[in-house]
Write a structure and sequence with these properties.
Layout: H1 2-32, E1 43-49, E2 58-59, E3 65-66, H2 68-78, E4 83-89, H3 92-101, E5 106-111, H4 115-120, E6 122-123, E7 128-129, E8 132-137, E9 153-156, H5 161-172, E10 179-182, H6 187-196, E11 202-205, H7 206-216, E12 220-224, H8 227-233, E13 237-242, H9 248-264, H10 267-276
Parallel strand pairs: 1-4, 1-5, 9-10
Antiparallel strand pairs: 2-3, 5-13, 6-13, 7-13, 8-11, 8-12
Length: 285
């Protein structure tokens, strides 16, 4: 009898142990999801932004990186579950250094296209379409074309498309160079300088100018550019730029497919209305 009792206790202990192990496995499986997939299985995509200019990239009242480009990026990757994204704010020149080293796979900062960047980086399909204008004080009538900018003063950020256009104009066309004051000042400050007369003008996107006029009550007006003058700056689109890293070909394909889908379903138009007060969704490429 004692032998049977000992055997019965042993069998009970074995069954109890099996039950505990099974529960543990079930708990682990449920934590990982039905397919057992975790973030460890995903491809990490590091995205860099400079945090300006508003409304394309900025830090909002909740100390979060926000803006048109940021929301476009988030919408893109909501439909790409195979990726995990990290968005990082950095100095504007550091975006390019990070893309060069593949520390960052994507730059999101209202990037226009130019020949120099096209040699080094991959451009996504367009995420924004706009027109370029010259911002001047409301009471000025002496600036109407690029030629009228000669000898005039403006504040510019290094390496952006407007700055490159003015540098090229000075080099190739200007009899009296445009005076360029290089600065990382906030756009609001730059436009206030135009309003006060400290600067003569600023090259800017039409949508952005209207937002700043409305938000800050600036007494400025927009001078539309001719097609020839617009071409000096580049096509009126902005893009995401991607590094030429090891996964760049597939990443570019996936990103572009999502951009097309977001244009078709109206998502980009909705983001544009929210952040830009108008529909600046690009045409499907």
């Amino acid at each position: 009898m004692a032998t049977w009792r000992r055997l019965g206790l042993s069998l009970a202990a074995i069954l109890l142990l099996i039950g505990v192990v099974a529960c543990g496995n079930e708990s682990s499986s449920s934590k990982n999801g039905s397919g057992g997939s975790t973030d460890k299985d995903k491809i990490v995509v590091n995205i860099a932004t400079g945090g300006s200019p508003r409304p394309f990239s900025y830090v909002n009242d909740n100390n979060e990186i926000d803006g048109y480009d940021i929301q476009i990026v988030k919408a893109i990757f909501e439909g790409l579950p195979q990726y995990k994204i990290n968005i990082e704010k950095t100095e504007f020149p550091s975006i390019f250094a990070g893309l060069d080293s593949d520390r960052y796979q994507i730059g999101a900062n209202n990037f226009a296209s130019n020949a120099e960047r096209k040699e080094k980086y991959i451009y996504s399909d367009p995420i924004f379409k706009n027109q370029f204008v010259i911002a001047v004080a409301a009471n000025r009538d002496d600036i109407k074309t690029f030629a009228d900018l000669e000898g005039k003063k403006t504040t510019v950020s290094p390496s952006v498309n407007y700055t490159v256009a003015l540098e090229n104009y000075n080099k190739d066309h200007a009899k009296t160079p445009v005076i360029l004051n290089y600065s990382e000042a906030e756009l609001a400050t730059v436009l206030q300088n135009v309003e006060s007369g400290a600067d003569d003008f600023n090259l800017i996107d039409a949508a952005m100018l209207q937002l700043y006029i409305k938000e800050y009550g600036l007494k400025l007006k927009a001078i539309p550019l001719s097609q020839e003058d617009s071409d000096r700056i580049g096509v009126p689109y902005s893009y995401l730029i991607l590094s030429k890293g090891k996964n760049s070909e597939q990443l570019t394909k996936d990103v572009n497919e999502r951009i097309k889908a977001l244009i078709q379903d109206g998502t980009i138009s909705k983001i544009s209305e929210k952040y830009l007060n108008g529909d600046f969704a690009p045409d499907i490429q």
